[in-house]
Amino acid sequence: MTTINLSFAEMFEKIIACDSSYDGLFYTAVKTTKIYCRPSCKARKPKQVNVQFYYTVPEVEQAGYRACKRCQPTRDMTPQMALITSAMAFLVEHYKQKLVLQDIAASVGVSPFHLERLFKQLTSETPRAYLEKYRVDKAAHLIANSTLTNLEICYEVGFQSPSNFYKAFRRIKQCSPGEYRERFHETQ
């Protein structure tokens, strides 16, 4: 079983945002309804105290939960999607490291060309774009919940240079890390 490097608060943020890029990496189980869903499920969001997270379907079903009829979390588990989910889990686990496509492909046992083509076909983005988005999401979480400087966060989340960090952050969040910090603290 692969566990991903996300805190409870980060996973809860992903289900509130209905972020489909985390589908297959974890499942949300609601204690009061005994139902489990994908992170991207559009059903009404549960209270945070009623939520538990599991990493695999067998694990959540063994705990006594049944699949959501709305998002059908077990519907798309083809061998190709399982391979992409494994690649995504590898990226999430090793996001702090300098990764190249060959490393990711070797982790799931396919050629780099095949992995990139299949990843793009099933997720509409490349492994590199997925990794960059994950790193920016992690950085946004750290900006909101830590006292680290933007430069410290840049290196903490795996970017190799501040210029790449600032460019990627602005492209994905439509603001700079400093602006994001100001906006977050204004709402508190």
TrEMBL record:
- Keyword hit for Transferase: yes
Residue ranges of the HTH araC/xylS-type domain? Answer: 85-183
Q: Which molecular function GO terms apply here?
A: DNA-binding transcription factor activity; methyltransferase activity; sequence-specific DNA binding; zinc ion binding
Stored InterPro entries: Ada-like_dom_sf (IPR035451), Ada_DNA_repair_Zn-bd (IPR004026), Homeodomain-like_sf (IPR009057), HTH_AraC (IPR018060), Me-P-triester_DNA_alkyl-Trfase (IPR016220)
Q: Which Pfam families match?
A: Ada_Zn_binding, HTH_18
Stored SMART domains: HTH_ARAC
| Matches recorded under Gene3D superfamilies | DNA Methylphosphotriester Repair Domain, Homeodomain-like
The cofactor required is: Zn(2+)
Q: Which keywords has UniProt assigned to this entry?
A: Activator, DNA-binding, Methyltransferase, Transcription, Transcription regulation, Transferase
Keyword DNA-binding attached:
yes
Provide one Gene Ontology biological process annotation. Answer: methylation
Membrane-spanning regions, if any? none
Give the superkingdom in one word. Bacteria
**Could you tell me which PANTHER family the record lists for this protein?**
ARAC-FAMILY TRANSCRIPTIONAL REGULATOR (PTHR43280), HTH-TYPE TRANSCRIPTIONAL REGULATOR EXSA (PTHR43280:SF2)
Protein name, as recorded: Adenosine deaminase
Its ancestry begins with: Bacteria, Bacillati, Bacillota, Bacilli, Bacillales
